[in-house]
Amino acid sequence: MQTVQKDQQIICRLEVGDEIITELKYLAATIPDQFGAISGIGACDDVTVSIYSTSRDEYVATRSQEQVELLSLNGNVENAAGKIAVHLHSTFARLDTSVFGGHLERAVISRTGELVIDLVPVVLGRTEDHQTKLQVLDIQS
């Protein structure tokens, strides 16, 4: 992944073979005590997304190993006192233009990926929500 930073924005270009979440974790390690809002596009060929099933109380994963277009990547990355978290949602299109998406678990770049990260110098962290048992942003931090 190649990056350039200007003020509070980081522009990233992911290369063939880069796994999005792995690369973002490496990047987050270089920006302590920051929260970043992420948006992006690109092309992938090994993708796993999941949807939270409230009836099963778990994430249900789906994997695609075909060439797909990353139509939209949204979420956040944070480095709260060395604790790194990446939370992304994504939408992909197949060659037949059918669309699928969900919580991004894994995505390997097949051609290129282009991301913008808007940084906010704040430490939030995550905490377990008592009702849903999910790890949510800790706005009280």
What descriptors fit this protein?
141 residues, mainly beta, 60s Ribosomal Protein L30, Chain: A, seven-stranded antiparallel sheet, two-stranded antiparallel sheet
Description:
The protein has one helix at residues 20-28, and strands at residues 2-6, 9-14, 34-53, 58-64, 68-80, 83-93, 99-120, 126-128, 135-137. The strands form 2 sheets. Strands 1, 2, 3, 4, 5, 6 and 7 form a 7-stranded antiparallel β-sheet that branches. The N and C termini lie far apart (31 Å). The mean pLDDT is 93. The chain has 141 residues and is mostly beta strands. It is built from 1 helix and 9 strands; from the N terminus they run ββαβββββββ.
Describe the protein's topology:
Layout: E1 2-6, E2 9-14, H1 20-28, E3 34-53, E4 58-64, E5 68-80, E6 83-93, E7 99-120, E8 126-128, E9 135-137
Antiparallel strand pairs: 1-2, 2-7, 3-4, 3-5, 3-7, 5-6, 6-7, 8-9
Measured distance between first and last alpha carbons: 31 Å
CATH level-two architecture: 2-Layer Sandwich
Helix content: under 10%
- The number of E-state strands comes to 9
- For the CA atoms, what is the radius of gyration? 15 Å
Largest sheet: 7 strands, antiparallel
Number of helices: 1
- The averaged pLDDT comes out at 93
**What's the CATH superfamily, by name?**
Hypothetical protein, similar to alpha- acetolactate decarboxylase, domain 2
Number of domains: 1
What structural class should be given to the helix and strand makeup?
A: mainly beta
Stretches where pLDDT falls below 50 for ≥5 residues? none
* CATH third-tier fold name: 60s Ribosomal Protein L30, Chain: A
- Estimate the strand proportion: over 45%
CATH class: Alpha Beta
Outline, from the CA principal axes? flat
Q: Order of SSEs, N→C?
A: EEHEEEEEEE
Protein name: PPC domain-containing protein
Pfam families: PCC
Domain PPC: 4-140
Organism: Latilactobacillus fuchuensis
